[in-house]
Structures are given as C-alpha cells and as structure tokens.
Amino acid sequence: MANIQELDSGEYLKPDFDLNKLTCALLRNILLRHDVQIKGSEKKADLLSKFDLEIKPYAKSYLGAMNNPTRSSEGIEDAISNCSINYVA
User: Fold this and answer.
1) Looking at the predicted structure, is the pLDDT value of residue 43 above 90?
2) Of the segments 33-37, 47-51, 62-66, 81-85, which one has the largest average pLDDT value?
3) Which residue range forms the structural domain that includes residue 28?
4) Do residues 73 and 86 make contact, with C-beta atoms less than 8 angstroms apart?
5) Domain contains 35
6) What gap in Å lies between CA 5 and CA 8, rounded to an integer?
7) How large is the C-alpha radius of gyration of the chain?
8) Which residues face 78 on adjacent strands?
9) If both were cysteines, with which of 22, 32, 41, 72 could 26 make a disulfide (CB 3.0 to 4.6 Å apart)?
10) Are the C-beta atoms of 71 and 87 separated by less than 8 Å?
11) In sequence order, what are the beta bridge partners of 84?
12) pLDDT tens digit sequence for 78-88
C-alpha cells in the first residue's frame, strides 16, 4: 500500500507505478493536488479514470517540474518588518 511520502516524492507519476495499490483517500488527495474536480461519492474506478485522463498525460512534465524547482518569493516574509519580500530574478 502506498503512503503519503510516495505522494510527496511524485512516485505515483512514474510509468511503472501501480495506481491500484492506492487507497481512494490517496487517489482523491492526488486529484485534488492537481486541481481535478471530484465528487465525494466517486468510486475507485472513477478516480483511476480521472487520473488517466487528467494527470497521466502530463506526468512527465509534472515530474520534471518537481525535480527542477524554480526560485520564488511566494510565501516569504521579512520577520522583522512583517512585510512580504518580493524577489526579482
């Protein structure tokens, strides 16, 4: 059975990963992380189908983005002045 660490590492995006070993809760988590709209009543087969349609075609680019993060000031604040820091590259 897969766990949350495999989600954070992007293991589920690799071609040889067996999505059937994921629980419905983990599948829902993955779909929501990728902004895929889901209903709470959807069955595992429906969730797997949505993954195949909306995430799998882009898995290679998602993995690339995870492995090559870009710098950003998003979420960084100056602790002394309590102001946001805007980084300009």
Assistant:
1) yes
2) 47-51
3) 4-84
4) yes
5) yes
6) 5
7) 17
8) 83
9) 22
10) yes
11) 77
12) 566 655 555 55
